[in-house]
Amino acid sequence: MRGNFWTAWHGTTRRNGIPMPVRDRRLAAVLVACLLLASSAVLVRTSGAVEPVAVEPAATPLPEIPVWISVSKGGDLVETRSRQRRIQITGPAGTRQIDRVKTDSGRGDWSRTVSTNRGPRWLTVGERIALSDTPIATGPLPANRQDELARAAAVAWIESTGEFVTVENIRSGRAEVRLRRWSPLRPLEGVDRLLSGLNAVGGVALHPRDPWMLITHQVPKADLPSTQTDQGWVFTNAVSIVPLDFSKPVVTLSLDLRTESFANPGAVLFSPEGDRAYVAHLGADVVSVVSIPRLLSAAGPGNQTSPASVPESTGAYNRFDPRLVRKYVVGRIPVGAGPSALGLSDDGRLLAVAHRWGPLAMLADTTRLTVVESIGGEPISNAAARGERLFHSGRLSPGGQFSCASCHPGGDQDGLNWDLPGDGDPAFLNTKSLLSLDGTGPYGWRGTSAVLTDRIRGTLSHLFGYAVTDAEASDLDAYLHALSARPSSSSDAVSKGSPQSEKAREIEVGRKQFEALGCAKCHTGPNLTDGQTHALEANGEAGEFETPSLRNLSLTAPYWHDGRAATLAELFETVDPQGPHGSVSKLSAEDRTALVQFLNSR
To answer: How far apart are CA 482 and CA 88, in angstroms?
Structure first.
């Protein structure tokens, strides 16, 4: 970041000619920009009307998530951290948390960071769109654009055109990522590209000189039986080269070696000249250093599959040759636990790494590719935080290729079917969300785990080949019970609107249909499940399955034990018209729509 985005003061030292911060200096606090799961945002300033609002401490506090870090010209660090609806600012006055911020207009919404041609900037969404203090668009942002920014795993702003690129994971059961380029000044226009076979987007960075961007993600191979995890074939940790005009195929290249993987690539940052990229691996505790000229050489044109041979519907191809990885990944920097944000000094000689666990931050020399300073940080202090660390650790899996978070990003689900039972007979079942688990046992589609720790032990033993200790299982259990799902869009809209609004009336009609059809016999109580297994049959297939909870149903598509229904409407009308849900197909179209609205509001 440039001078007006950081606060520097004297007291730096030099080591080998490199400006270094004093070891025990507190981090400088400036403009806060936080990646949050709400629908809109406002700008937070170091001066002006910013009013903190008290927030109740979490019953089981989890470490704040670093979302941005930078190195000032004097060698000082600037860092911001957030977790969902809380913002943590660490600065010379200590650490404080705020729930929301209010601008001069009194509106309290949310902000997030984006990558731009000049590095990270603050995106503000509300009555206008702005990056830092520069307005991009005035007037209200359409609701669909607010939702799009909230759903996006990563956002970039193209300064030369004033357009946004959003990268969104689509949990459709096909591991798809949507790249969308659009302008807030032309809200009805945009260019989309759908990429199949990718999931778990971690970060995005715009090349500082050329019109393309780099996104980090994983490539799952969910069609393989789980016995193949020992071979290291189930996940590939990768980067994709994406032309900004979407006119050329997207090229995906591996970051893994033949015998060693680096789980969950996340934050990504280009060097000032664009000749290097730095990729933080949340699940491997390393930063990969990528030579951009060599990466582009590996992508093509001499080594690539001919674009003419790529199906138009795909518009992408992979270059997964482990012999090439050693050519373009020129170094790995071991860092602290859970590297989540990256920043560079103006001259590119110092790389700052902010951690989710372990040290607060580390500084690395980009010439020697070694850590030269470790700064602050508190030890992980409670079971839930230790469990969160385990949940995101690739060391539990064969070769370090994936973590629990690979299939359950943020504790949610990836929408894919995996060979889950450890019986040697492939049985592909849809990933279940782990959010809001309290009171929803027994666990697993077959209801075979009476308590969550049993499910944890079984999954880690079968899928990971990892013998979890009792203490680790207890910590993971504590973390999962600390998670909660965000409200569904329908529920949020009703709670904010008039009780007599059209949507509220439609949901009330759906509630009556839910009761009249007897749905509550199985989906009962506050958790909307009876905790029992039932014999189900659909499309000629039968089996005993646990009654799934209907909590946050709108966020857990696709539906059915094997994800065969992309929508609830499809479930009722096509998948199960003769089964337990068959009576729904006999409803009028209006009543069926009302029932779906009601279910989506849970």
So the answer is: 19
H helix intervals, 52-203: 143-151
Distance CA 583, CA 174 (A): 29
pLDDT at 138: 61
**Alpha carbon distance 242, 213 (integer Å):** 5
Q: Name the residue with higher pLDDT: 93 or 317.
A: 317
User: What DSSP state is assigned to residue 407?
Assistant: H
In degrees and rounded to multiples of 5, residue 146 shows phi and psi of -60, -45
**CA-to-CA distance for 28 and 78, rounded, in angstroms?**
5
Distance of CA 203 to the CA centre of its chain: 9
Please give the share of the chain, as a percent, with pLDDT higher than 90: 27
Cα–Cα distance, 167 to 151 (Å, whole number): 9
pLDDT band at 205 (very low <50, low <70, confident <90, very high): very high
pLDDT in tens, 228-270: 776 667 899 999 999 988 888 899 999 999 889 999 999 999 9
Cα(275)–Cα(277) distance, rounded to whole angstroms? 7
Pairing of strands 428-430, 199-206: unpaired
Q: Identify the band that residue 349 occupies on the pLDDT scale cut at 50, 70 and 90.
A: very high
pLDDT digits (tens, 9 = 90+) for 78-90: 777 765 444 444 4
Region label for 300, one of left (φ > 0), alpha (ψ between -120 and 50) or beta (otherwise): left
> CA-CA distance, 330 to 344, in Å (whole number)?
18
Rounded distance, CA 596 to CA 289, Å? 48
Report DSSP state, residue 307: G
Joined together, the tokens standing for residue 112 give 């997030």
DSSP string, 248-296: S-EEEEE---SS-----EEEEEE-TTSSEEEEEETTTTEEEEEEHHHHH
d(CA 365, CA 162): 34
Beta strands, E only, 516-566: 533-538, 541-546
Distance CA 145, CA 129 (A): 11
Between β-strands 417-419 and 428-430, what pairing exists: parallel, antiparallel or unpaired? antiparallel
pTM above 0.90, yes or no: no
- What gap in Å lies between CA 274 and CA 312, rounded to an integer? 30
Q: Which amino acid is at 114?
A: V
CB atoms within 10 A of CB 469: 10
**Phi, psi (rounded to 5 degrees) for 541:** -110, 140
C-alpha–C-alpha distance, residues 312 and 309, integer Å: 9
Run of H or E residues at 505: helix 502-516
